[in-house]
Amino acid sequence: MLLYNSAVSGNCYKVRLLLAQLGLGYETVEVDVVDRSNRKELLGELNPALRVPTLVLDDGRPLAESNAILWYFGDGTSFVPDDAYERAHVLQWLFFEQYSHEPSIAVARFLKTYSGEPERFERQKERLLAGGYSALDAMEKRLGGAPFLVGGRYSIADVSLYAYTHVADEGGFELDGYPAIRDWLARVAAQPGHVPIDA
What we know:
Blueprint: E1 2-5, H1 10-22, E2 27-30, H2 39-43, E3 54-56, E4 62-64, H3 66-74, H4 84-114, H5 118-143, H6 156-165, H7 179-189
Parallel strand pairs: 1-2
Antiparallel strand pairs: 1-3, 3-4
Helix pairs in contact: 1-3, 1-6, 4-5, 4-6, 5-7
């Protein structure tokens, strides 16, 4: 398999993390998250959105969008529940991650730490922090009574939300007031096959 990847991207990291935990090998092509000038030539035939991660399966079929990739590889394994309600609950958290969590926490991190234009973060800081803390509040409420997000066990919902939550400080977020999230981060990091974002 071939993964079009950015080393600093949480969306790419969540794919690398799951593949590592499943023991699946792959090669990477590194893609710059700031300079997008060659995206059309690089990804145009594989992913109309021109985003990473984009993964090319061994048979040549492309697959894009990080959470779709997680579902593809997680389905049929212990990372996705068999129960229909719990499966829907996993999807609920995957949609939450992309709709409520990533647009604030990941964007703040990118603008503040990786864009080369931190003034863009300063202009949007109030809105980004408010949105990110709202997402963290929802996670804290859920994790206050459960070890993991769905069904009491580790799943791709945890993989997905771990990716940007564990580096939220790079976007200006403080997790001191989120003890359940901090405990959950430690549980995720202790899972077999775990690899750090900079592995």
